[in-house]
Amino acid sequence: MDTILFVAQTEGDASLGKASLEALNAAKSLAGELGVAFSVGLVGVTVQAAADSIAGCGAQAFFGVSGDEFAQARYATDAAALAALAKAAGATIVIGAATSRMSRVLPGVAARLDGRSDTNVTALTVAGDKPTVTRWHYRQRMSAELTRPERPWFISVSPGCFAPCSKQAATAIVTPVMPELPTGGLRAKVTSIISPSAEEQTIRPDAALLFVAGAGWTKKQADGAAHLSEAEEIILQFLSKAQASLGTSKSLVDLSGEGQQVMRFLTHMHQVGQTGSTPRHAKGLATCCHGEEPHTVGWRFIGERRAVNLDPNCGWAQGKADVLYVADAFEVMRALIKIMD
Ligand SMILES: Cc1cc2nc3c(=O)[nH]c(=O)nc-3n(C[C@H](O)[C@H](O)[C@H](O)COP(=O)(O)OP(=O)(O)OC[C@H]3O[C@@H](n4cnc5c(N)ncnc54)[C@H](O)[C@@H]3O)c2cc1C
Which residue is closest in CA terms to ligand 1's atom 22? Predict the structure, then answer.
């Protein structure tokens, strides 16, 4: 019989992030399907508040690693903490969210404990009596269901695939766990965090809508001229009004590498597709991009997809979008912004 442990690092304010609450739900429902109990393992400066916030989640036990050295992401401390939690709980299956901090360390912990690891899992089920994970391969082109006999099995769950576990506050009894830290001291130190301000931030993973801007925004339009600054203004206005997340095609990102003028707020981080990211959002609106397979791969997890393109034979018309507006995106977006005023 498997013993399931949900693990998470606390956020800067000592709470649990949305992705962690989703992973908690994943662990809880797998335990329910298997008919086994599950435990919670938390890492942070203090973990009591986070444990209290989910005290009513149904976990049979809470374990915690706390201390100042666990405030920041650092491989040595995070790996030691998670390994100690897995051992303390006697876990055979360890489930965490595929956040950047957890993803950096969970497969390494599996190696330390001679276990196995599967990352960015999108579904957890029980086939027969075996826990089974679903994950995508080859840049989201093939999906596989797999199970493993080896234990401990470390699983990171992709954000956006499970509903977050609702917070049920009470007082949790947390068993403190003391990890063994490296004897040579902790060499890696986080001295500061540099991040863009809220207004500059255009990648919003929790937004309801993904807005994709393609290379068409930079191309010559019907009047024979390109209208880049107008395009920038329209896109930024729409993003700010809709609080949408911005994605872009490879062509538009690559233009900067070719010395052409591109939009100042675009980086390679915005690229969606086979060689970009595959964000998850309820809705998507693609404008001025062609609907090619390599970038529509990035749309695999978009619920409702719409596109605006001048070309009625573009890729979106070949089944890549639910609704295609054959229209000028400059006009459509201007009209849309007016309605939103
Ligand atoms: C191995 C490989 C991997 C790749 N990976 C990726 C990837 O990860 N992500 C990615 O994006 N691409 C990727 N590509 C590139 C991809 O194949 C396309 O070349 C690129 O995505 C096309 O970008 P685009 O649609 O923005 O531009 P274009 O193909 O230039 O299309 C511009 C579109 O804008 C439309 N348009 C112009 N003006 C207007 C207007 N006023 N209103 C409405 N529509 C207008 C045009 O009709 C046209 O359809 C990859 C390619 C290869 C070979």
Answer: 251
